[in-house]
């Protein structure tokens, strides 16, 4: 065997081991470099993803802020469009309700109704009539050119007493509002008409008493009517009989309808009981 092979040169072996270690170091360095590059790349990708996610969050936040703004604007614009006609309609109803009890006279009484009856005078007259003995309640309505006085007298008053009370109220009106000045025409100028109604109890049929005074402006004197006493008793009796007959027929119809309803309810109950018995028998 060759002596060189049998006893290798240690220097040569050292050189070869150094070469091998250098090669391994190069390989390891390349692998480490690749790993570092890969890690750097991963970090860059991660940063890019974070940036993109951050941008998306910002965009979504902006979108979420803008979306309610658009809905609010649409809501307010729509509400305004709807509210305008509604408010106008309610305003018309309010005006109609306030002016509904006021008649439209336009130029009908131009130059007439002079002197004019003021609301303060109506209030004073109401209090004065209310203080008369036998008067329980007094109501005065002044509409257009007619003063209408309604007086609820005591139920204990007789027909003669209510008649006298009606005349006394007329005298009280003449005392505070002179008939000649306020309720009598002057040449071509029109004045107010006067109507006084005095009654005891409107709910009564047999003992009902009512007297009325009418004084229109063209009239020189008033007229006293006994409204509760019919001028034609026979005609009045026939009218009362017709009213009573109508009431009786309506009561009979109502009673018959109630009976029919009771019969239907009874039949329904019987049917339900029969079905229940059949179901129990089947079981």
Structure notes:
This protein is of the alpha+beta class. Among the domains are: 3-82; 119-234, GMP Synthetase, Chain A, domain 3 (2-Layer Sandwich), CATH 3.30.300. The chain contains six helices and five strands. It has helices at residues 3-6, 10-99, 119-130, 159-176, 179-182, 233-282; strands at 135-143, 146-153, 193-199, 210-215, 223-226. Mean pLDDT is 77; it is low at 1-7 and 9-29.
Q: Could you outline the blueprint of secondary structure elements for this entry?
A:
Elements lengths: L2 H4 L3 H90 L19 H12 L4 E9 L2 E8 L5 H18 L2 H4 L10 E7 L10 E6 L7 E4 L6 H50 L1
Parallel strand pairs: 2-3
Antiparallel strand pairs: 1-2, 3-4, 4-5
Share of helix, binned: 55-70%
- Oligomer designation: single chain
CATH topology of the domain at 119-234: GMP Synthetase, Chain A, domain 3
The largest pleated sheet is described as: 5 strands, mixed
CATH domain class name of the domain at 119-234: Alpha Beta
- What is the mean predicted local confidence, pLDDT? 77
How many angstroms does the end-to-end distance come to? Answer: 117 Å
CATH architectural label of the domain at 119-234: 2-Layer Sandwich
Number of strands: 5
Rounded radius of gyration (Å):
54 Å
What form results from the Cα inertia axes?
A: flat
Q: Are there runs of 5+ residues with pLDDT below 50, and where?
A: 1-7, 9-29
The DSSP helix count reads: 6
**What is the structural class?**
alpha+beta
**Percent strand:** 5-15%
Q: Would you list the SSEs in sequence order as H and E?
A: HHHEEHHEEEH
Strand order of the largest sheet: 1-2-3-4-5
């Amino acid at each position: 065997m060759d002596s060189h092979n049998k006893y290798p040169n240690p220097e040569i072996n050292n050189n070869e081991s150094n070469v091998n270690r250098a090669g391994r170091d190069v390989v390891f360095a390349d692998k480490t470099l690749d790993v570092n590059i890969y890690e750097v790349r991963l970090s860059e990708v991660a940063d890019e993803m974070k940036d993109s996610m951050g941008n998306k969050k910002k965009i979504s936040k902006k979108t979420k802020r803008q979306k309610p703004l658009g809905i609010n604007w649409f809501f307010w614009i729509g509400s305004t469009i709807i509210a305008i006609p509604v408010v106008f309609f309610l305003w018309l109803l309010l005006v109609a309700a306030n002016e509904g009890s006021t008649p439209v006279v336009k130029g009908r009484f131009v130059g007439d109704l002079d002197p004019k009856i003021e609301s303060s005078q109506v209030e004073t007259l109401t209090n004065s009539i209310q203080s008369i003995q036998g008067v329980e309640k007094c109501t005065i309505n002044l509409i257009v050119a007619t003063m209408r006085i309604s007086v609820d007298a005591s139920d204990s008053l007789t027909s003669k007493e209510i008649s006298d009370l009606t005349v006394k109220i007329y005298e009280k009106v003449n005392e505070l509002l002179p008939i000649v000045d306020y309720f009598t025409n002057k040449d071509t100028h029109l004045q107010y008409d006067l109507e006084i109604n005095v009654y005891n109890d409107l709910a009564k049929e047999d003992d009902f008493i009512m007297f009325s005074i009418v004084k229109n402006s063209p009239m020189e004197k008033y007229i006293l009517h006994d409204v509760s006493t019919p001028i034609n008793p026979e005609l009045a009796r026939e009218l009362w009989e017709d009213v009573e007959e109508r009431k009786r027929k309506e009561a009979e119809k109502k009673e018959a309808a109630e009976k029919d309803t009771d019969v239907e309810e009874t039949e329904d109950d019987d049917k339900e009981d029969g079905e229940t018995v059949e179901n129990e028998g089947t079981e």
